[in-house]
Specification:
about 100 residues, mainly beta, disordered C terminus, 6 strands
Length: about 100
């Protein structure tokens, strides 16, 4: 089986807060949720990389931060983002589960 992906949102990056502004979705934006960025996203803010798994830190239904590991997400330790740009986010699930 393997990984499955679901396009869940586009996001606007704010380097002042290291937050991503996303479409409101109270069912999807959960702390610890695995996400990735498709190769077609283009340039991502450092330290993010295409096709690397990151973990959501839920701030609100329209604001998230990203952590480099599930443990960091649970501890609310976010990545420091370096560019204010728009990006596309994919949910990452294993064997069809999100």
């Amino acid at each position: 089986m393997g990984n499955v992906y679901e396009l869940i949102s586009s996001a606007s990056v704010n380097t002042g807060t290291d937050e991503l502004t996303v479409a409101a979705n109270t069912d999807k934006w959960l702390t610890g949720m695995a996400v990735t960025f498709p190769a077609t996203t283009g340039t991502l803010p450092n330290p993010l990389n295409n096709s690397t798994t990151y973990y959501v830190i839920r701030i609100s239904s329209t604001s998230i931060k990203l952590a480099s590991s599930l443990a960091n997400a649970v501890l609310y330790t976010a990545n420091n983002l370096t560019a204010d740009i728009n990006i596309t986010i994919l949910a990452l699930g294993k064997d069809g589960f999100y």
